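Inputs:
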Amino acid sequence: MISFLDKTWTDVYKPTLILRAEVAKANIAWMADKANKAGVRFRPHFKTHQSAHVGQWYKEAGVTAITVSSVTMVQYFARAGWNDITIAFPVNIREVAAINELASKVSLNLVVESLETVSFLAKALTHAVKVWIKTDTGYKRTGIDWQNIRGVVDLAKSIKQHDTLHFAGLLAHAGHSYKEYTLDRILDIHQQTLSRLQELKSELEQAHFNDCELSLGDTPSCSLADDFTGVNEIRPGNFVFYDVQQLTIGSCHEKDLALAVACPVAAKHPERGTVIIYGGAVHFSKDFAEANGTKKYGLVVGGDNDKWAFDKDAYLSAVSQEHGTVKLPADVLEQVNVGDLLLIVPAHACLAVDLIRDYRTFQGEKFRAWS
Amino acid sequence: MISFLDKTWTDVYKPTLILRAEVAKANIAWMADKANKAGVRFRPHFKTHQSAHVGQWYKEAGVTAITVSSVTMVQYFARAGWNDITIAFPVNIREVAAINELASKVSLNLVVESLETVSFLAKALTHAVKVWIKTDTGYKRTGIDWQNIRGVVDLAKSIKQHDTLHFAGLLAHAGHSYKEYTLDRILDIHQQTLSRLQELKSELEQAHFNDCELSLGDTPSCSLADDFTGVNEIRPGNFVFYDVQQLTIGSCHEKDLALAVACPVAAKHPERGTVIIYGGAVHFSKDFAEANGTKKYGLVVGGDNDKWAFDKDAYLSAVSQEHGTVKLPADVLEQVNVGDLLLIVPAHACLAVDLIRDYRTFQGEKFRAWS
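Outputs:
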């Protein structure tokens, strides 16, 4: 394994996102194809890459509808030409002025879970939007509990009363799948999510809501499952790059990892088997993947150019504000010099992208995520 | 305890830094006075606030020299008129062009720990800089081990050989003090740091380095210690705002907390005693304070205006990308409505500032950290 970038990328001075563009494009094509075969709408989550440039790769794969997690991201992607956007976050009613402006330009999908929010929107919205009911199928973060049939039906009725609110269906995020580490457990959660949503949909149909769509979409389930019976759309995001957390869960293989961070080496400590990189919590966040009691904030990339290889003993073991501590096997450490770049696949790609924003590809493209 | 901001701050739409400016100014005055009484130079770390506006408060307290942790921050604060700046991070030699440009304008202090870096600088620098030897007094992140006398003396000799490198002294960061939770243990570490640096300084004096200054500066030690014998400068940063981590360690009291994040409430879940805020890992990072096995990503602020009060059962208990889950006692939760703002003191102020950047004060000032 070698530190291979410093010779070719002399204009990388500080932590920078490095993309294997062909891998990301293959991930997109693969998921688009999977959605197509399953007969479901593919509405990928763009919070992972936050980039109009990467968005273009989705357009080329036939994608026309997207998911984001904030009003700010709708503004950014609407400017980039996207016009069918879901904000997969319970409406932040303080941003209603911006929501109104956006709803006048694009087809906007909002997510609600309370009568309070529906009442507010009914009064404050000046343009029509689609409204999904956030349903909690077991993650217990947001949403109405799937067993609270009366709560869901009442909310759907309330939505239907108002001209500007068009009831779209039930939207769920099985975020608890990120805590699982076996294929069977992830598929169990996926099947449970499906059956709970279908059960609730039947109840809504009995209450004469016949146009209830089902939307779901965590990356582990969408990567590993093949059964999407009754589902109308999927919303995975992380799969475009994957990361060490997804690799640890088993959602992807090493060959599917598309994103790394190039970090300058600032110091070497052979006596403790570490090097210090310029690359810390303000670049990687403090998220980690944990296996066998070892926390890994990232994996060191070896190999040649975009042919990546990994070594379980080469990883980002600690981060403070700007400092990263990288563990390396002795024979690798010996080859590294101060001033070299180390490439590191982040534990959580979405957060590293949000923090760094400057991308480049092995083909020499440079672009920036929203700012 | 009440949610008190939504009535007055109708133009806060998303997570925003809220400062008790008077508290921050009092923290600055207190630390400046402490340094003054101890006869040490006060070179505060500006990575915590990253703001020219807050920097002005330091100028008004008589501060003329500062510390930062990246070349980018030097560029920002040099533009704001600061001209004596230390980068407390082992030199990132890939940024030597920017370093040269800065060294032509301001008095620049660099930190080194290897002959490799000194050789590089000797060849590449076009303007004189001051050079500190990073000394590891026990934290084991960066620096030459304090017991490696030969290594330190050799490095000092190497520095002295070059006209553009002016040997300044020994610089240490006792970052292991952040892991302690009692006054005695923090003071033990502080005394150990002092004696180790003094011992090494004596060795340098025997090797005829008579102008060796000592620089140290973690917030816990600088907050709690009074003995700075032999020290020439202190570099604390976090103390300007403090945060939940420092409160948990015991470096400060609740009255010293100057920074909170205002976050819109997006959903309520009385059945599990939580509300969901717009405020997640992209605002707070994933850093936390831990006490008695409970992880707290932030503390909810109660009280009236800038008279803050806290409740141990009201805290930010989980963060994902944009979602924050806040635990609240039943009687508090009852008073909170969707669309209200909750004020939350972050676990780690430096990272929340780096992520959010938009400040406002209770006096109505609005400003932005570097961008």
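Remarks. Chain B touches chain A through 55 residues (CB under 8 Å). Chain B has a mean pLDDT of 94.
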